[in-house]
Amino acid sequence: MGVVKAVIAEDEPVLRAELREMLVKLWPELAICAEANDGIEAMRALEAHAPDILVLDIQMPGLTGLEVAKQASGRCHVVFVTAYDEHAVAAFEQGAVDYVMKPVTYARLATTVGRLKQKVASAPAHLDGLLRMLSSGPPKEYLRWITASQGTDLRLITVDEICYFQADNKYTLVVTPHVESLIQKTIKELSDELDPQIFWQIHRSTVVNVNAIASVERNVRGRVSVKLKDRKESLPVADAYVHLFRRM
To answer: Is the CATH code 3.40.50.2300 the one for domain 5-133?
Structure first.
């Protein structure tokens, strides 16, 4: 066949640039004819360029990668970029050429390029089975890190480091074992973005990382509080949230 054309659809600009750079090095003859930063742009690129290969993030604004894949099914070879193992495995088993997990590594993408070169001359796979399987959509991607103010500095904090969040006027206090920082997000906003299996709201002003809890205590008045592994303070548990600790 002639020139092999590809479209990269990925809403994270840094990752999109990395994908392009790695693909250019691994497959210099590949013509990357368009890049898309959301699902709508990806759909337009699919129609405008009729690519042989579509490198497609599953989660994108506008239209999801799965909605774009529905239109790409049988028209081009699809490589899914995903943060979710279950999607990756399902995509591979249902006939997608390949998948790459985030963060994308050079070695893993090299394997994908090898598979693409073998299959690009053959008819693209139909993805109907995969799309039916995932019709409910991908699982929610929870917050993995935050940028917080500490004095005049900005710190990047992974959520695993955080012991608890506590409302502080218009801000929220982010507490790690050794540092306290501020962010401009409310407890309500954080509750919607954090993994509820790991971060429990225990008071209207407090969300705690369950992995940071050392013990749960009840005082003589029947009030419940949690002691932390790496902090001296105890955190009160409001009556409405005491039931959570029956699971522990």
So the answer is: yes
Quick one: 169 exposed, middle or buried, by C-beta within 10 A (0-12, 13-18, 19+)?
A: exposed
CATH numeric code, 145-246: 2.40.50.1020
Find the angle CA(93)-CA(95)-CA(101) to the nearest 5 degrees. 65
The pLDDT tens digits for 153-170 are 788 899 999 999 999 888
- Strands 53-57 and 77-82 come out as parallel
Q: Where are the domains of the chain?
A: 5-133, 145-246
The total number of residues written for the chain in this structure? 248
pTM tops 0.70: no
